[in-house]
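Q: Here's a chain of 184 amino acids. Please give me its 3D structure as tokens.
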Amino acid sequence: MNGKSPKITISPRPRHLLRSLLMLDDTEHAIALGTSIGVFLGLTPTVGAQMLTVMILSALTRRFFRFNVMAALMAVYISNPITIVPIYWALYKTGSFFVGGEVSRAQFAAILEYNNFAEWWNTIVELVIGLGQPLLIGTAIIAIPGGILTYPLMRWLLQWFRSEAEPQVVEDSTRTEQTESMVA
């Protein structure tokens, strides 16, 4: 931790996103907690409001605990325009297993299409009212464990990455002997 933050770029590749998370300049706890909060929020039906939710959560919890906001903001991108339909569909189907639900995948995908703020608001209303109970139950079943499991996984990855990144000082015995003979 040299005091300089690495250049953060948002990349569509999960590998680059993970590398950016691992290179954040903060404690392992703060990064892992931020990542787990971001994954949890990314797996909730808060389409379009996840980044704002991270910022509000950061402001509300600052007196009690601290998490790496940048890690949370990067991790919410687990749900993006490419993954939003499969993730929300999995949430809905999981919940409908317990409380029933009769929306087809095509209908579900159509609900998640929007082009402006008014359509985005209609999407949120339809998610909450039209699909609410199965979607919320599925969210509890998937998002809560997803967020919880992310924390130890991210801590382990950070410890491994940082131990690999530290320069290994290996003394070369011949170089040491040559240096000692030159000094004598």
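Q: Can you summarize the key feature?
A: The CA atoms of residues 95 and 137 lie 5 Å apart.
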